[in-house]
Amino acid sequence: MNQLHSSPSTPGVADITFSRLHNDSFLRACFRQASDHTPVWLMRQAGRYLPEYCATRAKAGSFMGLATHRDYATEVTLQPLERYPLDAAILFSDILTVPDAMGLGLSFALGEGPRFAHAVRDEAAVAKLAVPDMDKLRYVFDAVSSIRKALTQDGKGRVPLIGFSGSPWTLACYMVEGAGSDDYRLVKTMLYSRPDLMHRILAINADAVAAYLNAQIDAGAQAVMVFDSWGGVLADGAFQEFSLTYTARVLEQLKRVGPNGETIPRIVFTKGGGQWLQDMAELDCEVLGLDWTVNLTRARALVGGTDRRPGKALQGNIDPNVLFAQPAQIDREVTKVLDSFGAPYQGKGTGPTHIFNLGHGISQYTPPEHVAALVEAVHRHSRAMRAAA
Question: How many domains does the chain have?
Fold first, then answer.
């Protein structure tokens, strides 16, 4: 059980132990504690780039058949951990499960993105929205519990399990557009012409996301992440009003402690949000995820904290397309990212820490052996950095 020797809300929490884990490096980094290497996991690490994933999806018959089946979701969540020595698992699911539970009718066609049968584009459609009954999402929580059980070895978890949701704004983009979008014309039209309706959607989404993540925590998620995938499409000012405010509303409702007394770190990732790092530094979360456009040295100086000024752990941020280069080039790019962050904290208290990740989700066309090269390079170079410090 994690043992917390000061208030969970106190910045710079010190001396947390993780006796229930064989590999606690990810959680240590989340809480800005020292670890013997920089932990690494990958957004979308269970996915179509793995042949074993494609085989399981074929058995399931469809993406939703895969995502809503406890055993299949458990199987694909674990697949990348069987291939690579990753430092965290992330629940296999989709960011749009919450609006689906609101009755919008989510579907996926092979080779296409998500689509809703019922888009939310007028006052009548907005009036029908409500925080869904979490029992409609029981398949997600059952998968979380199943994955935690599967990760347990000798009474300890192999690595921590991350739960997640889309942000209120990102969910709203899909709900109003009805699918993915190149220009966000419909959702931005509502934002500018009927901000009252947009605020109504976002408030419901925020409360639904908070309830959803809390249920994942109750089921066994050891960290939770909010994916603000489309926050970066907003104008300055609009981002703060329509995205950041509602992400903050989610965070303020989240449970800080899991069912066994463990402290739950919270991660926020805003793709395209690098220009608002100082605004995001005020969020009540432990970790900020960064895309590949952000300079890690600058981000660490802005929000990474110091011994005297607690800040956020940083997660990211190599360009996913680096994985199409050969292993020697991947090795060099990994070193650049690690060097850009600089030497991680190695003391007994808390200080600036880094979780290695991609700057966005892994491409389905990525060669699996290149992922192996990346994970090996992160572990090797980050250990060498600590030894040289």
Answer: 1
Structural domain containing residue 30? 25-388
Question: Does a structural domain hold residue 17?
Answer: no
Q: Which backbone phi and psi does 206 adopt, to 5 degrees?
A: -60, -45
Query: Which pLDDT belongs to residue 2?
Result: 36
Among all chains, which residue has been given the structure tokens 């699996």? 368
Residue 188: inside a domain: yes
Is 293 in contact with 299 (CB distance < 8 Å)? Answer: no
Read off the pLDDT of residues 53-71 as tens digits, 9 standing for 90 and up: 999 999 999 888 999 999 9
Residue 117 contacts residue 134 (beta carbons within 8 Å): no
Dmax (CA) for the chain in angstroms is 63
Those residues with Cβ within 8 angstroms of residue 340's Cβ, 6 or more apart along the chain or in another chain: 295, 296, 297
What CATH number has the domain bearing residue 292?
A: 3.20.20.210
DSSP string over 226-290: EEETTGGGSPTTHHIIIIIHHHHHHHHHS-SB-TTS-B--EEEEETT-GGGHHHHTTSS-SEEE-
Select from 264, 344, 355 the least CA-distant residue to 317: 355
- Measured over the CA atoms of residue 99, residue 103, residue 108 and residue 113, the dihedral's sign is negative
Residue pLDDT, tens place only, 256-275: 999 989 999 999 999 999 99
Active site residues: 44, 48, 57, 94, 174
pLDDT in tens, 176-191: 999 888 899 999 999 9
Cα–Cα nearest to 266, from 338, 219, 216, 201: 216
Tens digit of pLDDT for each residue in 297-323?
999 999 998 666 789 999 999 999 999
Confidence of residue 10 (pLDDT cuts 50, 70, 90): very low
Q: Specify the pLDDT at position 12.
A: 38
Q: What is the pLDDT of residue 7?
A: 31
7 lies in a domain?
no
Residue 19 domain flag: no
